[in-house]
Structures are given as structure tokens and as C-alpha cells.
Automatic annotation (TrEMBL):
Superkingdom as given in the UniProt entry: Bacteria
Alphabetized InterPro entries for the sequence: Rv2466c-like, Thioredoxin-like_sf
One Pfam entry name: Rv2466c-like
Protein name as catalogued: Disulfide bond formation protein DsbA
Organism: Streptomyces botrytidirepellens
């Protein structure tokens, strides 16, 4: 399979979301077992929840204040160094936030930037609105494909008719590997490609399992 024959899978993430993190690790497995190439994009839970922030529980309102920093850093990195840096930066941030349980503060962000080979001063973007226009545009590009009633991640792939097939999720834990990753990918595309198909869901009984 040549590089040009790979199917692009556009993936919108917020590094704060543990469920998006699980899905992203699954997508890295999908790249190994299917001719798929993930293209990373930033979306923002803070932007998504702005219109209803006052209606959210106080704990979640506080979390949304924290959510601005990491996505601002990601979008600043993309604007200054290109979209190819997002995958490594997301991995460096997500590993620290979720697997290692580190604080979502400047020290953690700087360490992630350094691991991704990026300048530490990009961490300054966490407290700046300098790239918020670009952040909102990236968020809108993803959320417009699926509607406002979902969160992160959003995945979009080309359909057989040239139109994008886009969906939220899948929400899964732990991240499937090998043949299980391939089967989930095939099944997800199958149901998502059906016109008029909108939802399949069951109550979550466990939290994210990081490994």
C-alpha cells in the first residue's frame, strides 16, 4: 500500500478529554492495521461549552477555565510550526495529563513541548488570546460536521461519494489493539456511512483505562 493510497482520517481533539485520548490511541492502532493516515486538528471543550457555561455544575465550570490553556498552546504550535507537530504534541500532553496524572499547568505543558521538539516559549500562549480566532475556526470546522450536541473527538473520513463521513467517538476503553482495533474501525465506518444513522449508545460502567 503506497502512502498516497492511504485514507485520511481527520481527528479533532481537546487534550483535556480522557475519552478523546482513548479514541486517539485506538486511531494510532488503526494506522497500523488499515491503510489510514490520521490528520490531527484542535477543537475546544471550552469553546463548545461557552453558550451554556452558567448551566454547568460548578466543578465543570472550573475545569473549563483550565481547558483554555492546552488548546491555545496546541493551536499556537500548529500556526507557528505546521500541522505535523500536533500529533507528537498531543501524545506528549495526553500522556502527562491522563496516563501520568500530572497537573495541567505550565510546567507540564513545557515538558510536553520539549518532548515534541517544540520551543518552550509556546507555553506563553496558554494565557493569551492571540490565537483564539484560529482556535475557534479549527473547532468550528470539526463541530460543524457533526452538530453542537456532541463533544470530542470528532472523526471525518471521505465517503464513497466524495462527501465526508463524520461522527463523534467512538467512546471506548481500553483502546483496542491489533485485530480488535481493525474490527472497530470497519464497524464504525459501516454504521457511520448509513444515511440517517445517528446514534448507538449504552451506559458507561467503567472509566478510561490508560495503559
Amino acid at each position: 500500500m503506497t502512502e498516497t493510497a492511504k485514507t485520511p482520517a481527520d481527528f479533532w481533539f481537546d487534550p483535556l478529554c480522557p475519552w478523546a485520548w482513548m479514541t486517539s490511541r485506538w486511531m494510532l492502532e488503526v494506522e497500523k492495521v488499515r491503510p489510514v493516515e490520521v490528520r490531527w486538528h484542535v477543537m475546544s471543550l471550552a469553546v463548545l461549552n461557552e453558550p451554556k457555561l452558567d448551566e454547568l455544575p460548578e466543578r465543570y465550570q472550573e475545569l473549563m477555565k483550565t481547558a483554555w490553556g492546552p488548546v491555545r498552546v496546541c493551536i499556537a504550535a500548529e500556526q507557528k510550526h505546521g500541522s505535523d507537530v500536533l500529533g507528537p504534541l498531543y501524545t506528549a500532553l495526553g500522556t502527562r495529563f491522563h496516563n501520568q496524572g500530572l497537573e495541567k499547568d505550565r510546567e507540564t505543558i513545557v515538558a510536553a513541548l520539549e518532548e515534541a521538539g517544540l520551543p518552550a516559549d509556546l507555553a506563553d500562549a496558554a494565557d493569551s488570546d492571540a490565537y483564539d480566532t484560529e482556535l475557534r475556526a479549527s473547532h468550528k470546522a470539526g463541530i460543524d460536521l457533526v452538530g453542537q450536541e456532541v463533544g470530542t473527538p470528532v472523526i471525518a473520513v471521505p465517503g464513497s461519494d466524495g462527501e465526508q463521513i463524520a461522527f463523534f467517538g467512538p467512546v471506548v476503553t481500553p483502546a483496542p489493539k491489533g485485530d480488535a482495533a481493525a474490527r472497530l474501525w470497519d464497524g464504525t465506518l459501516m454504521v457511520a456511512s448509513i444515511p440517517g444513522f445517528y446514534e448507538i449508545k449504552r451506559t458507561r460502567t467503567v472509566g478510561p483505562i490508560f495503559d
